[in-house]
Amino acid sequence: MSTIRLVAEAVRLASSLAVKEITLFSDEVDRIARIVSGYTLWGGTIVLLACVSGFLLLMALVKGLGALIGSEAVAAVIGAAPFAAAATVLTLWGLRKMDLRR
Fold first, then answer.
1. Which residues of 52-63 are buried (b: 16+ CB within 10 A; e: fewer)?
2. C-alpha torsion angle, residues 62, 83, 50, 32 (rounded to 10)
3. What is the pLDDT of residues 54-93, one digit of tens each?
4. Which of 63, 43, 45, 44 is nearest to 55 (CA)?
5. What pLDDT does residue 76 have?
6. 22: number of CA atoms within 13 Å, CB side?
């Protein structure tokens, strides 16, 4: 009879320990998820602010160049030329990568 009681007590203690382990694991996963989502939120905010700052800097440079040369339209074309060139290069590179004959 005592062996059965010992086995029953061991099973009860093991199940109690398993519940505590699962609770601890769940708490740790929640904590890690909060930390990762916080860093992701900050990273996204930094990227967004960097993009907006870059756009505002580009607009200021175009306005300043327009004031220097007297034509804002020509300054806009000069400011857009590097982006148009990059888009052309990336398009040609992409078309070469998608070539079906390879």
1. eeeeeeeeeebe
2. 170
3. 999 999 999 999 999 999 999 999 999 999 999 999 999 9
4. 63
5. 93
6. 6
